[in-house]
Write a structure and sequence with these properties.
two-stranded antiparallel ribbon; 2 strands; 7 helices; mainly alpha; elongated
Length: about 230
């Protein structure tokens, strides 16, 4: 039912008396915790529950972009943190509307509870347009930053994959040439020139053993295509 003026005044008086949690358990739950982020190296402070949700969210978003190397990981982390900020801005908007139900904005006269809630939200928005405009601007800037970082990350990944494909193709050609030469002389095939001198700058996870597996897969695919023809 719509809140009466007496109930609204009682809510305001109770809010003034509130000084936060008093029990040791309540103070622990409300306390802030500082920790050093494992990826960024920065010290951050937030409640323990928020920190756990924050780290879990960031970890899952980073994994979705499949970064390799410190630079790609850093960009993916920036995207994850901006996605978190977007969610937080939306939560703040919902909380501002909910807060209107405990302020004078809730003195709307309506017999239906759903109508009362809808009109209270409308009045809260109407009386605080600058706050909602600020949130909208905040979200737009974050969204543009996410798009720029995604474009940068995809460009780096495309460059890395192109360099990897070129290196694999060169190594396959060298391996096949070595096998052809050694088969004529009836000696054991020479090891392919892999990894190239200086190693891989674009894919540190690629090892000679991984390449051998890729080369074997390439040979089996080549044989399968030949058999199908």
């Amino acid at each position: 039912m719509p809140a009466t003026q007496r109930q609204l005044e009682a809510n305001r008086q109770n809010a003034r008396k509130s000084t936060g949690p008093k029990s040791p358990e309540g103070k622990v739950r409300a306390s802030l915790n500082a920790w050093r982020h494992g990826l960024t190296g920065q010290v951050a402070t937030m409640p323990e529950e928020d920190r756990e949700a924050f780290e879990k969210f960031n970890r899952e978003i980073r994994r979705a972009y499949h970064p390799e190397g410190p630079l790609e990981t850093q960009i993916a982390q920036s995207i994850a943190e901006d996605e978190w900020r977007l969610n937080r801005a939306r939560a703040i908007e919902n909380n501002v509307l909910a807060l209107g139900h405990s302020t004078p904005d809730a003195d709307v006269i309506a017999e239906n509870t759903q109508i009362h809630a809808a009109l209270t939200q409308a009045r809260t928005f109407w009386r605080n347009p600058e706050k909602f405009a600020l949130l909208t601007l905040y979200e737009q800037r974050i969204s543009r930053r996410i798009q720029r970082n995604e474009a940068r990350l995809y460009a780096l990944q495309a460059e890395r994959k192109a360099a990897l494909e070129q290196a694999l193709e060169e190594a396959r050609l060298l391996a096949e040439a070595a096998e052809a030469t050694d088969s004529e002389s009836r000696t054991a095939p020479a090891a392919p020139d892999f990894p190239p001198p200086g190693g891989f700058a674009f894919s540190p996870a690629l090892t000679p053993e991984t390449f051998r597996l890729l080369l074997d897969r390439h040979r089996r695919l080549k044989a399968a295509r030949h058999a199908l023809k």
